[in-house]
Write a structure and sequence with these properties.
The protein is mainly α. 82% of the residues lie in helices and 0% in strands. The chain is built from 2 helices and no strands. α1 runs antiparallel to α2. The radius of gyration is 16 Å and the shape is elongated.
Length: 66
């Protein structure tokens, strides 16, 4: 499961990098740039959720040891 989470984090980071190249800072909230900005935020949320999942699994593992 740990490797799967790392793979998903890398994929989300790749998605963020790809969408960052699609941003047009002159017209940030128009057309294709808006979609890229939304996908950039979605990738950041996905990474945050995966990190929270990883931390909660580590806490659960430590709790079971005691």
């Amino acid at each position: 499961m740990k490797i799967f989470i790392y793979i998903l984090i890398v994929l989300a980071a790749g998605l963020m990098i790809f969408n960052a190249t699609k941003l047009d800072f002159d017209h940030l909230l128009e057309g294709e740039s808006l979609v890229a900005a939304i996908c950039l935020l979605a990738g950041a949320c996905a990474i945050l959720l995966l990190v929270i999942l990883q931390v909660s699994q580590a806490i659960d593992k430590k709790k079971k040891r005691r």
